[in-house]
Amino acid sequence: MYTSRRKFLKDFSMMGAATFSMPFVLPNPISAVKLNVLVLGGTNFLGPAIVNSLVDKGHNVTLFNRGITNPDLFPKLYKIRGDRKKGISGYQNLKNGKEIWDVVIDVWPQNPNFVQNAITVLQNRTKHYVFVSSIAVYANYGPIGLDENTARRKGNSYEEGNYNLNKVLCEKAVEEAFPGQFTIVRPGAIVGDRDSGPFGRYLLNRIKNRKEILAPDSNDPVQLIDAQDIGTFIASCLEKKVGGHFNLVGPASAMGYKDMLIQAKKALKSKVRILWMDPKFLVEEVKLEPFMEIPFWIPVAFDPEPGFYQISSKKAIEDGLVFTDYDETVKTSYLSFKEKRFIEEEGYDVVFGISEERENNIIERWKEKTK
């Protein structure tokens, strides 16, 4: 039933290497009140949220990227051009300089070779490395309340297409090169401004612009986080000199799937009629696949991995993680979709949701069934 999701999560192993996740005060703390920060990437989706948080706090930010994605963003910031896909040679413009940074923030990679190359070039030119990882690193989503000590996936070598393992290997490269001097964040589903995923362009789009939609009559747990909250948390960690591993999942209060749709409908002032259907009808009779064809819905009653949307962010909250109000996230996400403020991810071929025609057919079938 969940083949597509498992393809998305890739090679689900049962045990992984343990992480050392206790927060730590940096042994050689970042001393600058006004930090000198190098951001690798910084102009697509999560990148701008991180950059804006740092700039708003008055820190000096330099961007290193190809200058292709949203090249007009941040016209006042110093930019160094390079291409990480070219290996070490792609860092030539960085290697020629003598700048020293308090912090390097690595936003994009899911390839540990890219991370290792960046470390080779920058290890002696920064005190601290921040890496944006993912909750995908965990080996088993069966238990509820997974925290940062949960075992990661096993593996020692890069595997093409294995996002989950490759993120683990990226983390290991950072941990080994910057012991006690790193911050690794593990977001769950990221939404908000510039999101190219299914939250805005599928789920919210249907709620706002259709007269009638289907939905499972189910309030199974859902977790997501606003991109801006990740940016704010990273800036806060650096200023407070706190490092370690952090799960970043929200919202502020526990939310169920049904509540998520009802609140989104209210926030968007939509008049859509939501037809709440029996989950068994959707899964067993019309063969809709949770998560992939009904984005964000993982029915605990049918799922052997109920912990996927019940991950603990307690540690990050204790260290300052705050959440944007869900209604504001909904409005921002929808406006971003409406204004087409997102860019398709390179190589992005995962299709979420169902066609309008199929949805209408299922709605008619449900109406006949429930006459």
List the helices and strands and how they pair.
Layout: H1 3-9, E1 24-25, E2 36-40, H2 46-56, E3 60-65, E4 78-81, H3 92-95, E5 101-106, H4 112-122, E6 126-132, H5 163-177, E7 182-187, E8 190-191, H6 198-209, E9 212-216, E10 221-226, H7 227-240, E11 242-248, E12 250-256, H8 257-267, E13 273-277, H9 279-285, H10 314-318, H11 326-338, H12 356-369
Parallel strand pairs: 2-3, 2-5, 3-4, 5-6, 6-7, 7-11, 8-10, 9-13
Antiparallel strand pairs: 1-11, 10-12
Helix pairs in contact: 2-7, 4-5, 6-11, 8-11
Percent strand equals 15-25%
The total count of helices amounts to 12
Tell me the radius of gyration: 21 Å
Largest sheet: 8 strands, mixed
Mean pLDDT: 90
Question: What is the end-to-end distance?
Answer: 29 Å
Percent helix range:
25-40%
Strand order of the largest sheet: 1-11-7-6-5-2-3-4
What does this entry look like structurally?
- The chain has 371 residues and is α/β, with parallel strands linked by helices.
- It contains 12 helices and 13 strands.
- It starts with a helix and ends with a helix.
Defining traits:
disordered N terminus; 12 helices; alpha/beta; 371 residues; 3-stranded mixed β-sheet
